[in-house]
Design goal:
alpha+beta, two-stranded antiparallel sheet, 12 strands, ABC_permease_BceB-typ, cell membrane, transmembrane, transport
Length: 631
């Protein structure tokens, strides 16, 4: 058997440990290859697709490539730590340090070669589906037809072979073989009882509470100013949580006789503190990486929701016409005729209402405030099926579209409530209450009064004209295309909400698509780190449970103990990451004063479900190996 054959068979013998590394590396290659397919797609090179999307994908590809380097480097260090005993045996048989380094180098090159080839092949298999998905998410006019991406294959293959080569050289160069006795003993050396400082444990709680409290308490622009300090405090608190607080809590549980001596808890907590201490850095890294993935995707998705829903809330009508100030009646009449002609030409069936908007001075506000008579308001409300208003004489109702509308640090309703409506005869009408409505006649709030009261207001400071069309049933693409025509032919006067949302999604699509892919790469990597740590210690666990089985441990008891240990070790960093992500998205909602509960729950819930599924897969293989080795 040659040395190359020895290295090859070594990989096959360690397939249990290498499989997660191989699959994660292959997935990373596939994602990078996917971006390369987009980058070299004819639709991009011909300039028919937004260049910002191309630039974004290039940046994303670079981020994935750099992250892949550190991910693979960390993975290799985990493997080497678990193979101390193997290295000791090889040295005993006469292998030199140079030969061991060469073996590690060849193994990593071999895995890198197959992972790169596998990632490219899987990318090719799913290329058409990914292109169709991207075409819808990116919202582009050009069709992303399938093509054979020769350039993407070459770039991906060369890039990752070079990456694996560099890592292999680096790992082989820094690899140090310890004393022979240390290598032979491997994991049998006593580590001593893990120590945990009560002061540092309390500090972890204080840091996390301080970070969470600050994130939830501040709002508006203050969120940005405290972002960096909060990130530093929470990151430090998370590290101390896993290195000190977790160990301290386990020691407290071990001291509680009612808990520690109950059934199989002695086996559960017996070496849990050792495993938590040994895996603290891995758990910390998984928690932070997962938090970045949750927060990034949640922020991107939430911000898109904020933009699109905000536009829809402030513009409930399909088309709105607002002429320039002091526009002549003749121009307005021509514009209205042109709008109706375009709607007829496009066969858009829409209900229409129009009115004059009168602005008056009030007792508080320096700028004029819109006052609308009830009959005009009710006509516009009927267009979007909103409740009608019937204010009494000498009664003013404040209308507010959204909580997010701010005037000089206050909500519009608060400012208008402190003011009053002045009638022509000198009488003052105080506002009675505030009603939230989608009827968008005034962006910063306005008064609705009885028609008789409206006639007593006198001469307005200024009068504007507005008209709105609402399409109840219509083809979405046709409505968007009609909106585009209206905005082009009656520039700066017509607003089409559907076309505006379409343009927002079109511009935002590449960002969301790229962020989603990067987040998934981070998340998969975090799950792989947990897999590495669990299966690195599996040989120790096998020996431990095999010894305990000799004194009466049953198979059902073993399954219960192993299951609880895996749950604690697997979900500890994930739960911390979910809490971090929830707090981060809460801070984001306070930044924009916009409720992101639905978006946050969807993002965090989706990742939690994926992680639970991944846990069941990992637990199945882990449990199977432990049970087979013991019974």
């Amino acid at each position: 058997m040659t040395f190359r054959q020895f290295a090859f068979r070594n990989v096959l013998r360690n397939k249990r440990l290498y499989i997660a590394y191989f699959l994660s590396s292959m997935f990373t290659v596939m994602v990078f290859f996917t971006f390369a397919i987009f980058a070299f797609h004819p639709a991009f090179s011909e300039g028919s697709v937004n260049k910002y999307a191309l630039f974004g994908m290039a940046v994303a590809g670079g981020i994935i490539y750099v992250f892949s380097f550190f991910f693979i480097l960390y993975s290799m260090s985990s493997f080497l730590q678990s193979r101390k005993k193997e290295f000791g045996l090889l040295i005993t048989l006469g292998a030199s340090d140079k030969q061991i380094r060469l073996m590690v180098f060849m193994e990593n090159i071999l895995i890198g070669l197959f992972a790169t080839a596998g990632g490219i092949l899987i990318g090719l298999v799913f290329a058409k589906s990914i292109l169709l998905l991207a075409e819808n998410i990116l919202i582009i006019d050009a069709s992303l037809d399938f093509y054979f991406p020769v350039m993407a294959i070459v770039i991906t293959f060369i890039s990752f072979i070079f990456l694996f080569f560099c890592i292999s050289v680096l790992v082989a160069f820094v690899l140090r073989t310890n004393k022979l006795v240390d290598l032979i003993k491997g994991d049998k050396k006593s580590k001593g009882e893990p120590k945990a400082s009560i002061i540092l444990s309390i500090l972890a709680v204080i840091l996390l509470i301080a970070g969470y409290g600050t994130s939830v308490y501040v709002k508006g622009a203050s969120v940005v100013s405290v972002m960096i300090p909060v990130i530093i405090v929470v990151t430090l608190g998370t590290y101390i949580l896993f290195t000190q607080l977790s160990v301290y809590c386990i020691r407290l549980l071990k001291k509680n006789k009612l808990i520690f001596w109950r059934k199989t808890n002695i086996l559960l907590f017996g070496d849990l503190s050792f495993r938590m201490k040994d895996n603290a850095r891995t758990f910390f890294m998984v928690a932070i990486i997962s938090t970045v993935a949750f927060s990034a995707i949640g922020t991107l998705y939430g911000f898109q929701s904020y933009l699109t829903k905000g536009v829809k809330e402030m513009n409930p009508y399909t088309y709105t016409y607002s002429p320039f100030l002091d526009e002549s009646d003749e121009v307005i009449e021509q514009d209205m005729h042109k709008i109706n002609a375009i709607l007829d030409e496009q066969k858009i069936d829409a209900d229409m209402e129009s009115t004059d908007l009168a602005f008056y001075n009030t007792s508080v506000e320096e700028s004029p405030v819109l006052i609308v008579k009830a009959s005009a308001y009710n006509r516009f409300a009927a267009l979007i099926d909103e409740n009608k208003l019937h204010p009494k004489e000498n009664e003013a109702i404040i209308m507010e579209q959204s909580d997010a509308v701010i005037m000089e640090g206050q909500k519009a309703s608060e400012v208008l409530m402190a003011s009053s409506v002045q009638l022509d005869n000198g009488q003052e009408i105080l506002p009675s209450n505030t009603v939230k409505s989608a009827v968008g006649l005034g962006f910063s709030g306005y008064y609705v009064v009885n028609d008789n009261t409206y006639d007593q207001l006198g001469t307005p400071v200024r009068t504007d004209f507005t008209a709105a069309w609402n399409v109840h049933d219509g083809n979405e693409e046709q409505v968007i295309e009609t909106g585009k025509k209206l905005e082009e032919q009656i520039e700066h006067k017509v607003f089409s909400v559907d076309h505006s949302i379409y343009e927002i999604n079109k511009a935002y699509g590449p960002i969301l698509f790229i962020g989603l892919f990067i987040g998934i790469v981070f998340f998969v990597s975090a799950g792989s780190f947990l897999y590495f740590r669990l299966f690195t210690d599996i040989d120790i666990e096998k020996r431990k449970f095999k010894s305990i089985a000799k004194i009466g441990l049953t198979e059902s008891e073993l399954k219960k103990v192993v299951n609880r240990q895996i749950v604690i070790l697997f979900f500890s960093p994930i739960v911390v990451a979910l809490i971090h992500g929830a707090v981060a998205l809460t801070a984001l909602s306070r930044l924009f004063d916009y409720n992101l509960i639905v978006e946050s729950a969807l993002v965090l819930g989706s990742f939690a479900v994926i992680q639970v599924f991944y846990f069941f897969v990992v637990r199945f293989f882990y449990m199977k190996q432990v049970i087979q080795s013991v019974f």
